[in-house]
Amino acid sequence: MSVFHDRRLPETATPVGYAALIDAYNLPVPVPRALSAIGTKHRIIEQDGWRILTPRHAPEASLEGHLTFALKYEGLDLALLKRLFLAVRDEEVAEIVRQKPTGVYTRRIWFLYEWLLGRELKLPAADKVSYVDAVDTDIQFASAGQNSARHRVRNNLPGTPEFCPLVFKTSALNEFIAQDWKERARAVVSRVPKDLLARTAAFLLLQDSKSSYVIEGEAPPQDRIQRWGRAIGEAGRAQLDDQEFLRLQRIVIGDDRFVKLGFRKNGGFVGEHDRDTQRPIPDHISARSEDIVPLMADLIAFDHSAANGLDAVIAAAVLAFGFVYIHPFEDGNGRIHRYLMHHVLARRGFNPAGVHFPVSSAILDRIVEYRRVLESYSSRLLSCIQWEATPGGNVRVLNDTADFYRFFDATPHAEFLYACVRQTIERDLPNETSFLLSFDTFRAGIESMIDMPERTLNNLVGFLRQNQGKLSKRARENEFAAFTEDEVSKIEQLYADAFGQH
């Protein structure tokens, strides 16, 4: 085979594991980001989302063979596994277990079947053999786990059957975690005087609030930006529940005359409308309105469990992107999605006291990558959703899609959020602190020369920054026409001495 579901293989090979199961059972699921196949040569190729293995890796061409291969080499894809288990007969899985009752992979298959479907197979409890992890921690991140004596499996899944996105261990994420950005942030903050830190934190909050609106293409009045900034500053103080989400939406929206507040009662999508017919052209289709209440309850439960011991940034990515894919509101989803990043980081003690990282500012700097990360799942999900257009230009989902919002691969999302957090600690926080120190030095110099209101001083600094430390001819002839030539020269020198490279 050279093409699988519109994806070209690097060379002719036979799909195995999840790819083979999707084909064999015609599973309507988002195709995993990475797939496996068996080639004809004795070397491994990893290219274009494919891992081509050697003939000696070939599994037995059976349900057990491909399932075992998937668990061994590809990790867990819970949405795919659930659809597979619904497609096979209970007895088929039970027989796999009976044939190898102590097998490491058969016990994992047995546990996952009962965990995902919520019903027991007609099998006796496992013999007293060593426990095996449900999640292979060499492949994916997991929780500490609780033992399931029935299966002799340690349930280290970082969620519940109602909400459990998973994240693969990649070299990028392993490196981020090893670098211990939580402690690095504390080291940066410890070098900043408390009064200066308070001013830095206040500016970063305002900047984050403004950036979050800019990402949505909005330019609200300053009072709404400040109000949302105050909300971000309080992130993590209260546990999430339905009322907290509704409170956040009211703050974000402000004027609700044209927006129905509360959870959607209709379909939802992100995209455009055909200019002539007004038919929806979706890039992402949100969860069905009838699924929103249970999905939000499950997402809230995930937050209350402290994400079962997941790394704080990974947990923040899972919760925040899980929310935005559900898209429970008519409007305000994007800003609340980014608020949830602050919520988890603050609640888990990742932020230094009194500081919220300007994650939205970092996202705005990386807006193309951000959209690519959102689409890393939305684009694969879209082909699995059956929908029709409504007379009002909305979408109506026709099939059961709830599991696709419960289970997804959040690896790109976690890598992206970690990169944003690193930027805020490594660049944004030190840069703003440095700017304020320079500003104070410049202000002291100006005050020794001229009495000037704070607003005028801020304008002066703005003009100098825009013109590489020189006061433009237009500014000298208008806003600052009262300056003498000698004062202009001294002011420009003060700026150069205070700001250097700023």
TrEMBL record:
GO molecular function: ATP binding
Residues involved in ATP binding: D331, G332, N333, G334, R335, I336, H337, R338
Name the record gives this protein: Cell filamentation protein Fic
Residues annotated as catalytic: H327
Organism the protein comes from: Bradyrhizobium neotropicale
Residue stretches making up the Fido domain: 240-383
Alphabetically ordered keywords of this record: ATP-binding, Nucleotide-binding
Database matches in Gene3D superfamilies: Fido-like domain (1.10.3290.10)
Tagged with keyword ATP-binding: yes
InterPro entries, per the entry: Fido, Fido-like_dom_sf, Fido_containing
